[in-house]
UniProtKB/TrEMBL annotation:
It comes from Friedmanniomyces simplex. SUPFAM superfamilies: Quinoprotein alcohol dehydrogenase-like (SSF50998), WD40 repeat-like (SSF50978). Residues 850-1055 form the WDR36/Utp21 C-terminal domain. This is Small-subunit processome Utp21 domain-containing protein. One of its GO terms (cellular component) is Pwp2p-containing subcomplex of 90S preribosome. Keywords: Repeat, WD repeat. GO terms for biological process: rRNA processing. It comes from the Eukaryota. WD repeats lie at residues 618-659. PANTHER family: WD REPEAT-CONTAINING PROTEIN 36. Residues 881-891, 923-932 have a biased composition (Basic and acidic residues). Residues 881-932 are annotated as: Disordered. Residues 77-374 form the WDR36/Utp21 N-terminal domain. The keyword Amino-acid biosynthesis does not apply.
Length: 1059
C-alpha cells in the first residue's frame, strides 16, 4: 500500500509529509488564474467600496437616438450614455426596459436600431486605439460585425435598409449584409473631401443611398454594385458642409440642409431644387423629420406636409408647412436647454414616429422628450407628453435625504443633487422612473410673458431660475408630503408683512429643504413632498451672499450664514426672522454684560480690521461663515468661519458660549456634523480634517492623509467630506482621490482614485451607499459598502502606500448598467486570502489569541448554552419528562405491511446473523480492555494523572469538550477516597489564578458544591481546598474592581468640560 501511495501521489504532497515532521506547514496562498488573490486588487482601487451603478444619465452625448416600432402598439427608443445603450418603451411612459451589457471598450459614437437588433459603433480614439461595431439584442451582446483588418477609421453613422447595413467613416463607406454581418464591400470615391455623418436611403431606389460631404455635395451610391451613381452639387460653394439629409414622404424628393445655407427640397431624379427655405443664421439645421400621418398642415390641420427641423446650436424646434411654397408654421420654444458657457445644450435629433402624431426629441441637456399634437382648437405647436431627463451640467452638490421622525424614508433611497445648470433633482435608487426634478415654478410661462424666448434674450431665461446651489440642508420631520400647505402660493417671497395661516401649515407641514446659491444674498426653501419650490426666500441681515445653511433637527428653523459673518435664524412655518447670532443686546442685557465683565473677566475680541471690539457673548464672525449646524437637542448652534474660528452659540438667546481659534495655523473651508455622536468635523485649508466633541468643545482627532506631508497633495484642497451614518468613518475627497478614515483609531483605512476630480460626496442614512459626483459627468456615481456584506480589513495605510495609490494609473468608476458592481461584491466573498494578507501584514508569526495577556481575566470559547445547561440540568430534565406513557400505535390497514412483517419476511437476514466474525472479535477486545482498566473513563484517567503530575490543562480541556449531560455524570461520579474531588478543586483553583475560562470554572464549581456539598463540609482537606479557591476568587474580584474604577475615572476626567 505504501509503495502504491509513493507511485501515485504527486511529489509536492510527498514533500509535505516530510515537512510536517519539523512543525506546522504554512498555509499556501490561494491562486486565481495563477496569480495570488491578494495581488488581484490594483493599488488605485478601493477595498471598502465596490462600484454599483451610475444614475442620472439619459442622453448626455451627441450620439442621436434611434427608434424602432415594436409591433403595432408601441415604439422603443434607444439612446447612448457613453459606453452603454439605454432602451425606453414609449407605451410605458418612456420606462427604461434595457441597458446593454457588457460595456463597450470605448465610447459609443453611432447607433441604429434595426428590427429587434441595435447596432453600436465604438472607438477608443487615436490611430492605435481599438474600434468596432457590436450587435445587441434585448440588452445583451449578440455578435460583432466584421471590420477590415487593421481598420483605423471610426464609424460616424449608420443606415439600414433592405438587406444592407451601411457605415459612414471619414473617407470610406462600409457595407455589411444584415443577415450574416459579414463585410460585403468598402466604398471610397475619388474626392478627398471627408464624409459627414449625414446619410439616408432613397425609398423605391433599389440599393441606393445618399451621403453628404464636407464641401456641400451629396453623393448617390449603389451599395450592391459599389458604384457612384450621381453627385448632387450645392447651388453655391459658400453653403458649407451638408449637416442633414432626410428623404420626404414624396418619392424622389430629399431635404438637404447646409452649414451656412438654406434648406433645400431637392428632386434627385431630375436634379432640380423644388423648394428653398431660409433658416436662422448661426443655427444650422442638424436634424430633419417629416410627419407621415397625413395631417397637421393647413389652417385647420387637415392637410399633409409637416416638416420639423432642429439645430444642435439651439433648443428650439421649428415646424414648417410645405404646402403652397412652404412657410414657417410655428416654433416650439425651449424644447431643450440652449447651450451656455456652464452647460451644453441644443437639440441633437428630432423624429416623427411613423404614422403617429408624436414627435420625439433628444438634446445635449441630457433629456429625452416626446411631444403630441392634440390641441383643440388646432395648434401647430405640440404639448409635452413624456419626459425623461437629468442634469445638463456636472453635479456640484449631493445630499441624501435623512430619515424622517416616523421612519418613512429610513431606507435611504432618495438622493438630492444640484448642478451648474440651475436645477435640483431627486433621484430614486430603487426605481428610475420615480426620479424627478424639483419644480421652480412656471419658468417658461414667465419667460413667454416677458418675451425672453426670442433668440436675442436667451441668457435672461436662465435668470428666472435660481442661481447654482452651493449648499443645502434637509430635515423631513415637518415635511407634509404632497399635502403640505395646500393651494397655490408664490415661490420664494419675503415673509415680512405677509399674513400666514399657521393653523393650516401646522396640520399639513411645511418646507423641508433649504439651499444657498452662488453670489445670492437669499436662501431659498423647497417642498420635498410636493417636489417644488417653497414659499420663502430668507435674506441675510447684512445683504451679503449666503455661504452656508443649516436646519434644526425638528425641521422648524433654518439658519443662514453670510459672506460677511452674519448668522440669522428663520422660522420655516411662518417665514419670519427669529434670531441673530450674536443677538442684539437689550439695555438690560448690556447692563448685565458689564457686570459679567467685571465678575468673570471676559476677554476682548477684535474684528479683522481691528476697529471694532467684541466681548465674549457677542463675537460676530469677521469672515465668511463656511459651515453651520444645530445640535440634536436644539441647544447649540455651531458655526465655522473661513478664518479658522469655530463658535458655539446658545440656540435660544443667541449668545456666544465658547470659541475655538485655529486662525494662527489654518483656515476653515467646510463643516459637517454627526448628530448621533455629537461630533463636528472641520476641513482646514492645510489639508487636515479636525474632529471636535460638541459636548466638551475639545479637539479629539486630527485626520491627515499621511503623517509625513506628501508633495502630490500639497496644493490640493479638500473639496468635500462627510460622516458615515454611524459615525465610524469619515470620507473626504481631494482632487480625484477619495480618502476614508476610521474615527476610533484615527487611521487612514482606505484610499482610491476616480477617473476625474470629485466635487461632492454623500453617505446614505443606512450606510449602504456612497454617492460621488465628478467634474466630467452629469450623472451620480453610486458605490456599495462592502463592509455590510463581508469582512473587509481596515489596516492603516501608510505614507508610502498612499503615494503609490496617488501615482497609480488604475482608477474605478461605476457604470450605468451596474456592470461589475453587484457581481464584484458577490465574487469578493471568497477573497479571504486578501483579508488575511492585510491583517497579517508586518507580522512574523500568528499571535496567541487564547490568552492575549496574563493580566487579563478572559472567558472561554465554550458555547454559552453548554455551561448554562449544566447549571440547570435537573430543571431541564424535569421539564422534558414525558407526561404520560407512549401510546400504542393504531392498527394499520390490512394492505400495508407492518414492521414485524418486514422483519419476519423470509429471506431477510437477522441482525445476529449479519454480525461478522471481525465485529465479534472487536467487541470482545473492547470488553476485555474495559475490564482491565476497571471501567475508568477518559476524564477519570486524566484526573488521576493531574493529581500525580500537577498538570491540569489536559483535564480542563477534556472537561470543556464534554456535553452538559456527560459533564454532569462525571461530576456525580467523583469519589473522596481516591482524592479525585480534591484534584478537581485544585485544578479549578489553578484555573482561577491563571485568569482563564472564568465562566466555565464558576459553573463547574457551582455544580460540584451542589452535588457534593455535604462531603466538602465533612472533609478537612476538601474544605481547605475550597477555601483556597474562594480566596483566589476574592483576590481576582478586587483586582478587576480596581481596574474598572480606574478606567471609569479616566473616562470621566476626559469627558469633563473643564479639562
Amino acid at each position: 500500500m505504501e509503495s502504491f501511495w509513493r507511485e501515485r501521489c504527486p511529489a509536492h504532497i510527498r514533500n509535505m509529509e516530510v515537512d510536517m515532521a519539523d512543525g506546522p506547514v504554512a498555509k499556501r496562498q490561494k491562486l486565481a488564474n495563477g496569480t495570488p488573490k491578494s495581488q488581484q486588487r490594483a493599488p488605485g482601487t478601493s477595498r471598502l467600496f465596490a462600484p454599483y451603478r451610475t444614475v442620472g444619465l439619459v442622453s448626455p452625448t451627441a450620439v442621436p437616438f434611434t427608434s424602432v416600432p415594436l409591433g403595432k402598439t408601441t415604439f422603443q427608443i434607444t439612446t447612448s450614455v457613453g459606453r452603454s445603450l439605454q432602451t425606453y418603451d414609449l407605451r410605458r411612459g418612456l420606462n427604461l426596459v434595457f441597458i446593454t451589457r457588457p460595456q463597450t471598450p470605448g465610447p459609443i459614437i453611432a447607433s441604429i436600431a434595426w428590427k429587434d437588433k441595435v447596432f453600436g459603433a465604438w472607438s477608443e480614439g487615436g490611430d492605435s486605439g481599438a474600434r468596432g461595431v457590436w450587435v445587441f439584442k434585448r440588452g445583451k451582446r449578440e455578435a460583432e460585425v466584421e471590420t477590415p483588418r487593421g481598420w483605423r477609421q471610426d464609424v460616424k453613422a449608420f443606415c439600414c435598409f433592405g438587406g444592407w447595413i451601411l457605415g459612414v467613416c471619414d473617407t470610406t463607406l462600409l457595407v455589411w449584409k444584415s443577415t450574416t454581418y459579414e463585410l460585403y464591400t468598402t466604398l471610397q470615391g475619388i474626392s478627398p473631401v471627408l464624409f459627414t455623418r449625414c446619410v439616408a436611403s432613397l425609398p423605391t431606389f433599389l440599393n441606393k443611398v445618399v451621403v453628404g460631404r464636407q464641401d456641400g455635395s451629396a453623393e448617390i451610391w449603389n451599395v450592391s454594385s459599389g458604384k457612384l451613381i450621381y453627385t448632387v452639387l450645392p447651388p453655391s460653394t459658400a453653403y458649407g458642409a451638408v449637416t442633414a439629409i432626410q428623404p420626404t414622404p414624396a418619392l424622389s424628393l430629399v431635404a438637404i440642409a447646409y452649414e451656412k445655407g438654406p434648406l433645400l427640397i431637392h428632386d434627385v431624379r431630375a436634379d432640380q431644387t423644388v423648394m428653398q427655405l431660409n433658416t436662422s443664421a448661426g443655427a444650422p439645421i442638424t436634424s430633419i423629420t417629416f410627419r407621415t400621418d397625413g395631417v397637421g398642415a393647413g389652417e385647420d390641420g387637415q392637410k399633409a406636409g409637416v416638416m420639423a427641423t432642429a439645430s444642435i446650436a439651439s433648443g428650439d424646434v421649428t415646424l414648417w408647412d410645405l404646402n403652397e411654397g412652404g412657410r414657417k408654421a410655428g416654433v416650439l420654444r425651449s424644447a431643450h436647454a440652449d447651450p451656455t458657457p456652464a452647460a451644453p445644450g441644443g437639440v441633437s435629433k428630432i423624429e416623427f414616429l411613423p404614422g403617429q402624431h408624436t414627435l420625439v426629441s433628444s438634446g445635449l441637456d441630457n433629456s429625452l422628450k416626446t411631444w403630441i399634437f392634440d390641441h383643440t382648437p388646432f395648434s401647430p405647436i405640440p404639448r409635452i407628453l413624456h419626459h425623461r431627463g437629468g442634469h445638463g451640467a456636472p453635479v456640484t452638490k449631493l445630499e441624501f435625504l435623512p430619515s424622517a421622525s416616523d421612519g418613512s424614508d429610513d431606507t435611504g433611497k432618495w438622493l438630492m443633487s444640484a448642478s451648474q445648470d440651475r436645477s435640483v433633482w431627486g433621484w430614486s435608487l430603487r426605481r428610475d422612473n420615480q426620479s424627478t426634478e424639483l419644480s421652480q415654478g412656471a419658468v417658461l410661462s414667465k419667460a413667454k410673458k416677458q418675451g425672453l424666448l426670442s433668440g436675442s434674450s436667451r441668457d435672461s431665461l436662465q435668470e428666472l431660475k435660481c442661481p447654482p446651489i452651493t449648499a443645502m440642508a434637509c430635515s423631513l420631520n415637518r415635511d407634509g408630503g404632497m399635502g403640505a400647505v395646500p393651494g397655490k402660493h408664490p415661490v420664494w417671497q419675503n415673509a415680512k408683512g405677509k399674513k400666514v395661516d399657521a393653523e393650516v401649515s401646522a396640520m399639513t407641514g411645511w418646507e423641508s429643504v433649504v439651499t444657498a446659491h452662488e453670489r445670492d444674498h437669499k436662501a431659498r426653501t423647497w417642498f420635498w413632498g410636493r417636489k417644488r419650490a417653497g414659499r420663502w426666500a430668507f435674506p441675510t441681515s447684512d445683504e451679503s451672499p449666503v455661504t452656508s445653511v443649516a436646519m434644526s433637527p425638528c425641521g422648524t428653523f433654518a439658519v443662514v450664514g453670510s459672506e460677511k459673518g452674519g448668522i440669522d435664524m428663520f422660522n420655516l412655518q411662518s417665514g419670519l426672522h427669529r434670531q441673530r447670532f450674536p443677538a442684539r443686546l437689550t439695555p438690560q442685557q448690556a447692563k448685565q454684560l458689564k457686570l459679567d465683565m467685571h465678575k468673570h473677566g471676559l476677554a476682548e475680541e477684535r474684528s479683522e480690521d481691528g476697529k471694532k471690539v467684541f466681548y465674549r457673548g457677542q463675537g460676530k464672525h469677521a469672515s465668511a461663515v463656511v459651515g453651520l449646524a444645530v445640535d440634536n437637542l436644539n441647544k447649540t448652534v455651531i458655526s465655522a468661519g473661513a478664518d479658522g474660528k469655530v463658535k458655539f452659540w446658545d440656540f435660544s438667546t443667541g449668545l456666544l458660549r465658547h470659541q475655538l481659534d485655529w486662525s494662527a495655523s489654518t483656515g476653515t473651508t467646510a463643516m459637517r456634523i454627526q448628530r448621533s455622536s455629537d461630533l463636528a468635523a472641520f476641513a482646514g485649508s492645510d489639508g487636515c480634517v479636525r474632529v471636535v466633541d460638541i459636548g466638551t468643545y475639545k479637539l479629539i482627532r486630527e485626520l491627515w492623509p499621511a503623517r509625513t506631508p506628501l508633495l502630490q497633495l500639497h496644493s490640493i484642497a479638500i473639496a468635500d467630506f462627510t460622516f458615515s451614518p454611524d459615525g465610524h468613518w469619515l470620507a473626504a475627497s481631494m482632487g480625484s482621490l477619495i480618502l476614508l478614515w476610521d474615527l476610533p483609531t484615527g487611521h487612514l483605512v482606505d484610499a482610491f482614485k476616480l477617473v476625474a476630480s470629485c466635487t461632492s460626496l454623500a453617505f446614505s442614512p443606512t450606510g449602504e451607499y456612497l454617492a460621488i459626483a465628478t467634474k466630467d459627468s452629469v450623472g451620480v456615481d453610486v458605490w456599495s459598502n462592502k463592509a455590510l456584506f463581508m469582512h473587509v480589513p481596515t489596516r492603516h495605510i501608510g505614507a508610502a502606500e498612499l503615494a503609490a495609490i496617488i501615482d497609480a494609473d488604475s482608477t474605478q468608476a461605476p457604470t450605468t448598467s451596474g456592470e461589475g458592481g453587484q457581481e464584484l461584491i458577490t465574487a469578493s466573498n471568497g477573497d479571504g486570502e486578501e483579508a488575511e494578507h492585510d491583517l497579517m501584514a508586518g507580522l512574523d508569526e500568528e499571535p496567541n489569541v487564547d490568552q492575549l495577556s496574563s493580566d487579563l481575566l478572559s472567558l472561554s470559547l465554550v458555547p454559552k448554552s453548554r455551561w448554562q445547561n449544566l447549571l440547570h440540568l435537573d430543571l431541564i430534565r424535569a421539564r422534558n419528562k414525558p407526561v404520560e406513557p407512549p401510546k400504542k400505535p393504531e392498527k394499520a390497514p390490512f394492505f400495508l405491511p407492518s414492521l414485524q412483517d418486514r422483519q419476519s419476511a423470509p429471506g431477510a437476514p437477522r441482525p445476529e446473523e449479519a454480525t461478522t466474525a471481525a465485529e465479534l472479535e472487536e467487541e470482545r477486545s473492547r470488553v476485555l480492555k474495559q475490564s482491565r482498566e476497571g471501567g475508568r473513563s477518559a476524564f477519570s484517567t486524566l484526573l488521576r494523572e493531574a493529581g500525580e503530575t500537577q498538570v491540569y490543562m489536559p483535564l480542563i480541556e477534556n472537561l470543556k469538550s464534554l456535553s452538559p449531560a456527560a459533564a454532569d455524570i462525571e461530576l456525580r461520579s467523583l469519589s473522596v477516597e481516591g482524592e479525585e474531588m480534591l484534584t478537581l478543586v485544585q485544578a479549578l483553583t489553578w484555573l482561577m489564578r491563571e485568569r482563564r475560562d472564568f465562566e466555565v470554572g464558576q459553573a463547574w464549581m457551582a455544580v460540584l458544591l451542589r452535588l457534593h456539598g455535604e462531603l466538602v463540609v465533612n472533609d478537612d482537606a476538601l474544605r481547605e481546598a475550597v477555601g483556597e479557591w474562594r480566596d483566589a476568587l476574592e483576590e481576582e474580584s478586587k483586582r478587576v474592581a480596581r481596574l474598572g474604577a480606574y478606567c471609569s475615572g479616566v473616562v470621566g476626567y476626559l469627558r469633563a468640560a473643564r479639562v
